[in-house]
User: What shape does this take?
Amino acid sequence: MIRKKSKKEIELIRDAGALAAETLIRAGELCKPGVSTEEIDQFVYDYTIRHKGIPAPLNYHKFPKSCCTSVNEVVCHGIPSPQRILKEGDIINVDITTILAGYHGDTNATFLVGCVASDAEKLVKVAYECLQAGIDAAAAPKARYSDIGAAIQDIADEHGYGVVEDYCGHGIGRAFHEDPTVFHFRTRRPGPFIEEGHVFTIEPMINLGNPETRVLKDNWTAVTQDGSLSAQWEHTVARTADGIDILTLPR
Ligand code: MF3
Ligand code: CO
Ligand code: CO
Assistant: This one.
């Protein structure tokens, strides 16, 4: 069941989303050679608490940290660690979900650590275009959820990139993950219509190589099976009468 949100609830999700976005921008500024992903996590925890929020990942299904930090071939759910020290040429996705006044805002971005190889930089740029194309598809009149994945897959295919199918976007609100599941790839059947008041994430994970993933022994870290780089971007959005309202923008 997809629960519709009232205008008031959407403003509360925007409040949470703005704090998440502001945290994300500052976390991105920390992504420099020599910095550990633990230091990024520490910042996310402190900044969130200082602004009266709660980092949603912390203890979520026993996740041990306040954000996900996914470097290079890590697709998603990378666990921040003092041992994981960023080096020039890495790409790192930082995924921040903030709870404020009982509502969730969920956003992520992939940052370049110093100078990055041109194929990696292009992957990050195309992954961002995939997110934008997904948002544009969701904004069209009479859009269905399945239009999002179709638009994303068209772009990835043009470049020969793999669209991850094992992890998806999701409805969001009082809960971190709600109905519906938002696929980032083309599906055989048309999905439900995207209706006014629906709030959900779009968060395509795009691999330089094949779309397949596997989870490491820590039971969280998802990596590409072929070891190729992976990039991701995420926004929380609300469907309005005539388009899409992005709720995870800084104020
Ligand atoms: N923020 C992720 C998402 O976009 C979910 C992370 S779950 C966690 O849905 F437990 F790893 F934090
Ligand atoms: Co999400
Ligand atoms: Co997220």
User: Anything to note?
Assistant: Residues 7-29 form the longest helix (23 residues). The mean pLDDT is 99. The first strand starts at residue 54 and ends at 55.
